[in-house]
Each structure stands twice: as structure tokens, then as C-alpha cells.
Amino acid sequence: xxxxxxxxxxxxxxxxxxxxxxxxxxxxxxxxxxxxxxxxxxxxxxxxxxxxxxxxxxxxxxxxxxxxxxxxxxxxxxxxxxxxxxxxxxxxxxxxxxxxxxxxxxxxxxxxxxxxxxxxxxxxxxxxxxxxxxxxxxxxxxxxxxxxxxxxxxxxxxxxxxxxxxxxxxxxxxxxxxxxxxxxxxxxxxxxxxxxxxxxxxxxxxxxxxxxxxxxxxxxxxxxxxxxxxxxxxxxxxxxxxxxxxxxxxxxxxxxxxxxxxxxxxxxxxxxxxxxxxxxxxxxxxxxxxxxxxxxxxxxxxxxxxxxxxxxxxxxxxxxxxxxxxxxxxxxxxxxxxxxxxxxxxxxxxxxxxxxxxxxxxxxxxx
Amino acid sequence: xxxxxxxxxxxxxxxxxxxxxxxxxxxxxxxxxxxxxxxxxxxxxxxxxxxxxxxxxxxxxxxxxxxxxxxxxxxxxxxxxxxxxxxxxxxxxxxxxxxxxxxxxxxxxxxxxxxxxxxxxxxxxxxxxxxxxxxxxxxxxxxxxxxxxxxxxxxxxxxxxxxxxxxxxxxxxxxxxxxxxxxxxxxxxxxxxxxxxxxxxxxxxxxxxxxxxxxxxxxxxxxxxxxxxxxxxxxxxxxxxxxxxxxxxxxxxxxxxxxxxxxxxxxxxxxxxxxxxxxxxxxxxxxxxxxxxxxxxxxxxxxxxxxxxxxxxxxxxxxxxxxxxxxxxxxxxxxxxxxxxxxxxxxxxxxxxxxxxxxxxxxxxxx
Lengths: 367, 367
Fold this sequence. Notes:
Chain A is of the alpha+beta class and 367 residues long. The first copy, chain A, has helices at 3-27, 70-89, 96-102, 115-129, 177-180, 198-206, 209-212, 226-237, 251-262, 271-274, 286-291, 301-312, 314-317, 320-332, 348-360; strands at 33-37, 44-47, 52-55, 59-63, 145-147, 150-155, 161-165, 173-174, 183-187, 191-195, 215-219, 243-246, 280-283, 297-298, 334-335. In chain A, strand 2 (44-47) and strand 3 form a beta hairpin.
């Protein structure tokens, strides 16, 4: 049995357990109910150990005895049952939108009237299991791609296992449901570089950054999707690779890195499964804008407002370097994109900028 | 020499020619100038043969003798010269954003002040050469992916040629610069299905639609990018594969199909290189919404406005089926997403819906 199959069996049992709890209650003539971790603001707390938002101890009781709850309670069981089948079969992954439409076949009393209803129930199940919805085969929009000397093993829709080395793809392997959960069977790289923009990702591929830095390159395509955050975490946790995040030089770019490092308040119930606390932000930092004399734009009101918010955010509190960079932006009143490094030619980013930054961050091979 | 290298040599000569024209003028003591096809509204005409917008015969003269033109004239030559090097080297592709930043190194008199200036010059060169900018290695944002039994041959950044069969990728090959221009070395499929949403693309992969219909599946991810339109056109033109486009059931979905078939007014100067006039729209049609009793939403004012615009659009004028569907939407006042077919189960779209539609459209194997 592959690791993935073992894990699926485990999740299958967890989902089955939900049904068994209900069955026992019914047999005891109890009104069936489930205790679900509360995802309300007053139960989202900052965990100083994991440096991310997590849920507190409060729970909500979803009960068939409450007329307002009876429909969502039944819907939760239907969704859990559907996911149990998806996990057992192992072949299919559905989107949240598909789930909403599938409910149409459950009849007019059970079907979801609006998608926020089904989304809410998916989050309930995530919180119940302590697992992101990808694990119960409800997958997010694919976004981003991965390139470099790593071999992925995944199950094809026809049931056969396949291997792909990401170097043997023209523009990287897109991060869809099968890539997201693929096993890592061989990896020669010793670090991960996650890149905000498509343009810089392509630049690093074309300048052979993956060879020069012995790195896996990940294209975030802006804010990282959950699937991408998950694959980054697995590369860090399973293979022990340090992770470096290369973004535009503005508070929004920095926060793209922070969500990879510490998750978001919205995903408090599963942040521990998604966040990579020891990932490091390369830049472009506010200091880099000055040091490298980068072409820049003036910060706008909305940027200054964002900086103020981030300065107060608990995720930034402990990191003196990031606090200092936030302050520096306020001082220089400028932002720059990562492509601005192109003013020094195509090779500058791999020959000068990244080596200097890796030295600063004590990356493997640059200590 | 590979076909790609032959083509690059051809484009290199065309770019060199631009410089030679200027040189000759200077040697004759003429003030140098270039005649560029006009991309103004009054020069965009509808070509009833190609069923797409093209440019008329009007030209604009960019001259070094006009004080307002001298800077953009010199910039055009700088960009053409840069592209000549990119095409010669064959390894690098740049984004329009990168081009803007590269100009920083040309000095304060020549650098672009804003990106629209460099974008405009790129379009001038496209119009001059009659080629899309991908051919001069200025690539669009990667978007979409390709899956199925087709082998692509492409040049790796390290200069070596590689082959990848798109079936041997976990979630399809993402359509970036190298995929976009890859040679097709082997293809067992006999048709192309282009799909609007990520969700339905994944559904078709997981239900083995590529095997059942002997098809290449292309994920558009919404409105098709230029790179995706180009690869669709090449599959149609080079391999002779018929193309079917599967979208949501609303005027926006239909227009996604239309832009693949007939291009847009904005790309009139290169539509002949991007459009696939004999591609066919599968649906979801307005009639399908009724026939398959799909879960639907009410059309909004903005949808009705769009329908009115499309009814007048010359690209729709000749196609009675599309005109009838536009009228039908106005009648039923409803729209539906392609995922709405999930109400009949996971397999319905491949076992019932698509076979019925392929029969209607006389696809290979369904005649």
C-alpha cells in the first residue's frame, strides 16, 4: 500500500467515525448531534509556538433537535458521506462549485440553495477532521507550477501510478489535484525558491537558477493558492528543504510571503497543515530598493494603510527584520517590482542579487 | 535545423530587414522613417472570408524627422534589436513588463516612462511583421494547460531538446513560453476539446474523456490567453484536428468561444495568426439549459446588454445557430454553468451530454 493509500484509509476511517457517532446516538434514542470546533472570530487565537492563527477550545453543537440546524446537519452528513466515497475510490476530486451542483440530486429538501451554505459545511468538516479539504478530495482552483529536479509519483485517472520529473516538463508541472498530493520519490535539490510573478519564475528557469542554486522553483502566480501552500509545506516538512520566498518589493508582496509562513485568520482551523513557519522572505525588501537603486513607484494611501495594519499584526510582531522593513517603506515611501532588477541585465538576478540575499539568509551552500 | 529554428531564422531576417531599411535611408541622406500598419479604429475591418477583424490598408509613418516621433522611433528600433537577439539566441522569453524595466538601462532619454508606451511599440512591431509577439519572444502571462496523448518537443533552457507526452503529467502541461512554441512530434488524438473552467477540465480528465473521445483536453481557465489560442490554432492547422469549445451557458461563455474562433478587434493586426475559424462551440447552449433541465440563475441586466451587443457583432452575423441561441437566452431569461450537469452524476457529461453534442456537431467518430 502506498503512503497516499495508507493516508486515505486513515481519513476514510475518520469520516466513517462521524457516521458511527450518529448511529450510536440514534440507537440510544438520543437526538443526534455533533460537536464542531467553532470558527467564529472569538475562537481564533494566535499560537505563539506555531506563529500562526489556530482555533481555540470553543465548540458549536450541530443538532438534529434544533429546527434551524436539522437541514445543515443532514447536509453535513451527506457531504461527509460523499467525501468518504471520494477518498475510498481515490480517483476523483471535486471543486466546491461541483459539490453545490451535486446537491441538486439530493432532492429539494436537502439541496444547497446557495454555494456559501455548502462552503460552510466543507469548513465544518475540515475543522472536525483537522484536515484541509484537499485531503477529502475537495480541491481548490489549480494555480501555480513547480519546476526543478524532483520526481513526483501520482495516480493517473486510469488507476495506474506514474512518475514525472519536473525538469522534464516544458514550463513546469501545474499544481492541480494530482500534483498537490503526489509522493516525492526523488529530489536532488536542497532548497525551494517560491516566486511571486510568472515573469520572474520564467526568468529564473531561463537563467538556469534551478541548477545554479540547486533549487526547486515554484511559481506562486500572485497570492499562493492553498494547493501551492500545501506543496511548499510538504517539501519543507517531508524533504526538510528550506524555503525562500521572492516577491515584489511592497507590503502586499511581503504579505504573500507571510501567508505562506503563518497562514491566514480565515484558515485558522487548518493553518498547522498549511503553514511553513521557518520559510524565509528573500525580498525585494524596502532596503533592497535603496541598495540596488531600483525603478520604483510612490506608495499610495492604500499601501500606507496596509503597512500600518501589518505593523500591528501578531504574525509580524516577533520578527525584527520584517518590522524594520515595514518602517523602512514608510520612510522611503516607495515600492518596486521584482522585475525592476532587469535594469542590470538578464543574469543579474542569479549572478548578483540572489547570491547576496542567500548569504544574508544563510541558505545551504551560502553559509 | 528544427522547424522552430528555421522559423526563428526567418523572423531574425525580418527584424534585421527593419534595420537595413533605416540604414539605406541614412546612406541616401534621407530622414529615416518606417511605414507601420495603422491600428486605429478606422483601419479595423471585418474580413468575411476569415470571419475575423483584420487591419485595412492604412499606414502610419513613424519618422525620425518629427520631433514628437523621434523618441518612439528610436525606441522601436531598440525593441526590434532586442527581439532580434532574443530570437537569435532562442533561449530567452521576456514579458512586456520585463521589457519596460529593461529599457531602464537605455538611459534617461530612451527609457519608457510608462508601460503603455512599450506595449504600444510591441504592437507596432507585431503589425510590421504580421506576427504575434510570442514569435519575437515577448510572451504573455502563462494560463491554461493541455492534457492528452500528444508529445511535445521543446528546447530546454540548457539548450537541449526534450520531449514530453502530456499524458505523463499529473495535471496537464501548463501553457508557458516553451509549451506554446513546442513542436508536435506525435499525436494520437483526433480532436481538441477546450474547456472554460478548471473544474470541468479536471472532471473530464478524471472521467477519462481524453480516452473515450480520443481527444486533447485544453483548460482555458476562463477567457483564453493568447498563448492558449495560439496552441489551439496550431493543433487545428498543423495537425488538422477539429476543435470543440465547451463553456458555461451564458453569453460570456459563448463569447469565450467566439474569441477563439474569430479573434478580437484589439488583436486585428494578428488575428489571422491566432484565430481558429472552423472551431465549434459545444455549449452549454441556451437550448441545453431547457433540454437538460439545468440548475440556472436569472440573466441580469448586464447579461441582456451583452446579448444585444453580440447580436449586432459581425462575428455572429453569419451563424444562424448562434443567433438562435442568443435569441433563446432572451426568451428563457436564464443562464447555467457547465458544472450544472453534475446533478446527473459524475459520468453524465462524458456518457450522455458530450456524445449527444458531438453527434449534433458531426465530430469525428460521431458522424
